[in-house]
Write a structure and sequence with these properties.
The structure is a single chain. By secondary structure, the chain is mostly helical. It has one domain. The protein is built from 2 helices and no strands. The longest helix is centred in the middle third of the chain and has 56 residues. The termini are far apart.
């Protein structure tokens, strides 16, 4: 049988370990949430840039679009 004093120490050590695991878990969750927010911000920026380019291309008339496409594809002006 374990003496009462040792039982108290074991209970305190167990509570300490459980609290450390809880703190670790919450820190990992916060880090994951920050990472997800950063990824979503990059996706939103890329989506906005693509939409801006699409709007710009749609606004061009046929001749301007042909000239810009030649520059984009061939790297030369026609």
């Amino acid at each position: 049988m374990i003496p009462a004093r040792w039982q108290l120490y074991l209970i305190l050590a167990g509570a300490f370990v459980v609290s450390l695991l809880g703190i670790r878990s919450s820190l990992l969750a916060q880090g994951e949430a920050r990472l997800r927010a950063r990824i979503e911000a990059k996706r939103a920026a890329a989506r906005d840039a693509a939409q801006e380019i699409e709007n710009e291309v749609e606004a061009l008339d046929r001749d301007d679009l042909k000239r810009r496409a030649a520059v984009w594809v061939r790297g030369t002006k026609r």
